[in-house]
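Handout, page 2. Input:
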Amino acid sequence: TSEELRSNTEKELSQTQKKILELLSINEQFSAGELADQIGVSRRSIEFNIKTLKEKGFVIRHGSTKGGYWEVIK
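Output:
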């Protein structure tokens, strides 16, 4: 089922990716820089991990780069 697939995919997430999802659940308007500061990794690492999360269907970006927000798909 899709629920089992999602569960298996979640197991494949890195600690950084899990933390990104956790933080975006709290504040969907965090920027890559703010996430990097919160987690303690580089901005480039955040950008790479968000790209991966988008590809796996965990997050969707709504709106513009500066004025938009992230939706975490439960």
